[in-house]
Amino acid sequence: MITPNKNTALSNSQGTNSNPSISTKSAERIKELRKKKINPTQLVKEITNGNKTALSRAITLIESRQIKHTPAINTIIEGCLPYANNSLRVGITGVPGVGKSTFIEALGNYLICQNKKVAVLAIDPSSSISHGSILGDKTRMEELVKQENAFIRPTASGDSLGGVAQKTRESIILCEAAGFDVILIETVGVGQSETMVHSMTDFFLLLKLAGAGDELQGIKRGIMEMADAIVINKADGENKKPAQQAKSEFRKALHLYPTTESGWQPKVKLASALQQQGIEEVWNMITTYENSTKENGYFQHKRKEQNKFWLLQTINDKLKANFYQQPEIKEKLKQQLKAIENNETTPFVAANFLLDLAKEL
Amino acid sequence: MITPNKNTALSNSQGTNSNPSISTKSAERIKELRKKKINPTQLVKEITNGNKTALSRAITLIESRQIKHTPAINTIIEGCLPYANNSLRVGITGVPGVGKSTFIEALGNYLICQNKKVAVLAIDPSSSISHGSILGDKTRMEELVKQENAFIRPTASGDSLGGVAQKTRESIILCEAAGFDVILIETVGVGQSETMVHSMTDFFLLLKLAGAGDELQGIKRGIMEMADAIVINKADGENKKPAQQAKSEFRKALHLYPTTESGWQPKVKLASALQQQGIEEVWNMITTYENSTKENGYFQHKRKEQNKFWLLQTINDKLKANFYQQPEIKEKLKQQLKAIENNETTPFVAANFLLDLAKEL
């Protein structure tokens, strides 16, 4: 959005006033305008050169979801795609308090020491309340955020799960094009976001704490089934013994599940992110998984299946967005929901009314 | 579909042949034609008169999902709606082998003795293999199926979950219009169908068996959280003791969940459907729930929330159906999925291609 400004280079050319301060101002203004104007081809070039500022700007563009930006977004994504797909995508989930940020910081720093480039995408679509906590996470990863080879990005909140999913999928592509070879996708294990993250990662890691009640009180049950590994965090000091006990219990529980298609038997590990213990072992496990599933073809198969799922998902998201974004529909939908609340209509009648309305728009 | 027949009343009028057998044949033929032609207003009238054949025909029409039937279907549903909404909708789930059919037959027969009219809608969208088993269920409910005041209907299989959901939602409306005051909706507790059934019922009942491993090996973990009651079936003979033990374990587990919005504390009951024990107690519990939630307003609130959900669901289903049903899209989608399989395209490019294509159609 360009704010109206009479003082442009054009309207300002009164005679031959060569006051240098004015030409400097103009130059700055033009710079500003250029900054605001998006050049998607240029952005792609900068991203593939590993420019984190460009990467960040492109993700902001994707997150804006403004219709006028759609062509630019498509150009950026299609431009980045040939450079994408070469990272390892790791999903990390766990209830609040399990120490996700500390764990990711420890893992991220370890990977950077191994000459990896690490991107962290943090997802929390649950509410604007947690928005603050995610931003908190960002600043909490104090060491990682300073690293040249790290890129940390929280998602904007207040969005639908479908919206967040698409943004994250597209952000992964961009991060990969920027040369990040490990993408850590963090999510809070209390909603439906884990299923989504599971559908876009190669390896899914569930963080747990030792101690009763955790599995019943916080985390959804289905999540354990999706995990390729459970890591019991904070396994230090007094917690060490209960953590070891929890490890053997989880191991028993995991053995009851049928073997997965990947041939991989989910593992249980102990770690103390705070004391930087167990991090290397976790990473070795993940690379073992990568190697064995690349060898038996499951890794590639899973990515293809995920791509098919994304194809349908992208279409479905777009169909919905096209429908619900229409101002007329937005307004009438609100009215119809109100009418349902007042028992004045039924879902079927209201749906048909809105669908018929859309045909006329 | 009318098969070509030269012998119609028109082409057959050769002279004045008054052979009575021909005019009888013609009459029969006209009757046949009338039968095949749908008169939705007449169907609504018959349904609201409690005619089970009409109800069955209308549900078949809904299941056909042929575009040419859409106006008729809409007329039927809108005609039935004013007579709907007066039943108690009970969802019943459990893994195969838990005795769902026997339990539903016992509960259904009990309710009919209480002068209730009972409709059973059986859902199993998982596969065509289980189609057989559901049809088996239908015949297995030998006593119930004979009752004048019972209506048993399995869903057609091989459909998407969204499709099954809409059919079931519409079938509920029709059954209610036909005067059925208890709708039992049966589903197999192994897929995502329980969440769907949960979203369209007032009370959600989970059938369990005593014995280890059941909860880990078969049923999805999230289901227990949705249950308003767990009924441990086959609590007879040697099973009685383990069932009582399981009861106290489940009770403990349920107490760990946070209190629900309804103010209802989920209950655990024992039953033996085979020996017709515990059925009355289960029904009393359900009516206690109905009374208490109608009193505190949660019952009505939940139905309104479900209606809002259905409104959005109906729109989303329709948007998808309109898109994917186009023959051109069907064909090109197949090609694009193949191209993903061969790494020749990406989900984003493929999705945009199909969406652009649809705009031109």
Strand content of chain A: 5-15%
Q: How many domains make up the coordinates of chain A? A: 3
Strand-pairing-aware structural class of chain A: alpha/beta
Mean pLDDT of chain A: 82
The CATH architecture category of the largest domain in chain A equals 3-Layer(aba) Sandwich
Describe the fold and architecture.
Chains A, B: Residues 86-237 form the AAA+ ATPase domain. Chains A, B: This is Methylmalonyl-CoA mutase metallochaperone MeaB. Chains A, B: InterPro entries: AAA+_ATPase (IPR003593), GTPase_ArgK (IPR005129), P-loop_NTPase (IPR027417). Chains A, B: Pfam families: MeaB. 2 copies of one chain form a homodimer. Chain A has 16 helices and 7 strands. In chain A, strands 3-2-4-1-5-6-7 form a 7-stranded parallel β-sheet, sandwiched between helices. In chain A, β6, α12 (240-255) and β7 form a beta-alpha-beta unit. The first copy, chain A, is α/β, with parallel strands linked by helices and 361 residues long. Chain A has 3 domains: 34-83, Single alpha-helices involved in coiled-coils or other helix-helix interfaces (Up-down Bundle); 85-296, 3-Layer(aba) Sandwich (Rossmann fold); 309-360, Helix Hairpins, CATH 1.10.287. The longest helix of chain A is centred in the last third of the chain and has 27 residues, at 298-324. Helix content of chain A is 56%, strand content 11%.
